[in-house]
Amino acid sequence: MTPAILALNLGLSFAALVALCLSLNRHHAEIFGTKPSGRRVVLLRVLGWGGLVLCLLVAGEAEGWGFGPVQWVGAVSGAGAGLVLLLSYRPRLVAPAGVAAVGLAMTAGLLLHVA
């Protein structure tokens, strides 16, 4: 298990879970002050589920299909725990943290590509 793959999986998982979180009326209104439009809900759900599937594919290809899904479950669980804590104590930071997670995933992906 390489740290770059783990960082990539954590970043993608957290960003995907943030997108799914923001597709819910309650969380979207709590963070942005307005309810999301129907089109935005669909976009956020597609991005969220697509991100989780992409994360699973990355983990499976990088770590092998014997260990990759295990790492994926761990990354999604860790990202979910972090998101729950952030929603509980600092909900306004959820959207910026999701953007930062995408940046982390892109940086880890570039490190993997360069190495």
Give the gist of this structure.
By secondary structure, this protein is mostly helical. Helices cover 84% and strands 0% of the residues. Helix 1 runs antiparallel to helix 3 and helix 1 (3-22) runs antiparallel to helix 5.
What's the story with the biggest beta sheet?
none
How are helices and strands ordered from N to C?
Answer: HHHHH
Average pLDDT level: 93
Globally, the shape reads elongated
Number of helices: 5
Beta-strand percentage range: under 5%
What count of domains describes the coordinates?
A: 1
- Specify Rg, calculated over alpha carbons: 14 Å
What is the β-strand count?
A: 0
Quaternary state of this entry equals single chain
Give the termini separation: 15 Å
Low-confidence stretches: none
Give a structural overview.
- It is elongated, with a radius of gyration of 14 Å.
- The protein is built from five helices and no strands.
- Helix 1 (3-22) packs across helix 4.
- By secondary structure, the chain is an all-alpha fold.
- The chain has one domain (3-114).
- It is 84% helix and 0% strand.
- The two termini are 15 Å apart.
What attributes characterize this protein structure?
115 residues, mainly alpha, 5 helices, 0% strand, elongated
